[in-house]
Amino acid sequence: MFKLKIADVVFGVHPIYADCKRFCSDFIYAGAEEPEFIIKIEKSDIEREKSACYPEDYPESYLETLALSRIFSSKLLSQYQGMLFHCSSVKYNGNAYLFTAPSGTGKSTHASYWKRLLGDKAVIINDDKPIIRRINGKFYLFGSPWNGKHHIGVNDYAPLKAICVLTRGEQNSIEKINAEKAIPVLLEQTVRPSNAEDMFKLLDLIDAIVKESGLYLLKCNIDPESAKVSFKGMVGEDYET
Amino acid sequence: MKLKEGFILRQIGEKYVVVAVGAAAKNFNGMITLNSTGALLFNLAKENVDEIQFKNALLSEYSGQITEEIALRDAKAFIQKLVEAGLLK
Q1: Which of A65, A183, A186, A236 shows the smallest number of beta carbons within 10 Å?
Q2: With an 8 Å Cβ cutoff, are A196 and B22 in contact?
Q3: What percent of chain A has pLDDT over 90?
Q4: What is the ipTM of this complex?
């Protein structure tokens, strides 16, 4: 068993494959705190991921990391007011800005444009599945080991400032959107629980997130200039070179 | 008519959303947005209900503000929405 600390939760993992520990290496916890719970991965968990991924044929060691994310996200939701959220997340000036959209829209590309625009002032906390968690009434974005196919991410966190829904457009433009528009996207880009009790928790969590975060819709093309539009819209200032 | 099992209603912001859980989620993984009137009718449909009961619920909710004709039209439209989404059994 090894211990992890993700989203400020210390827990133990009993994997089947050694690769699992390597995959989580940035989040290994070596401190004295006892794990709050232990996740033991079973063969059946891997089989479940296999059928969810079908017809793609992934190695079992990779499917194990997916199983771990599913079990951990369910724990987060039921006990820690947290959820895994499919987005690319950038930390700038101490705050987290999230770009979300269905796969293939260009979240990662857009986050990389922020990085290009802002250089060392911006950090990509996680490029695929970071965690949103409420602690003492305030929302934070935490890094996680599930950081996408390019493995871009760090073990860091920041207060959640704004969520931007990405769509493709001819021209670059950004607008504020209301909760009603953002809710379906948020629900779409997280792991949906199958039991009613956790579903209520998820809906309540999303309700609080949309009340407390800036919500935006960005129409963007693949021009790096699009980052200037989203930066000005969300941060509220012109970027400085 | 009556709602199938496994659909839950929750207020988010100023709207209400309906999502599926358990076995129902296998066939319905989207969400339906309702206003407060929709939510009222949705809750009625947890028990056996017909369009007349929907109509009466609307008439009492909007007492004096709508005609019977409009209430019946809206009741039918709501039933249609539930049918299209596959929520009724």
Answers
A1: A236
A2: yes
A3: 92
A4: 0.84
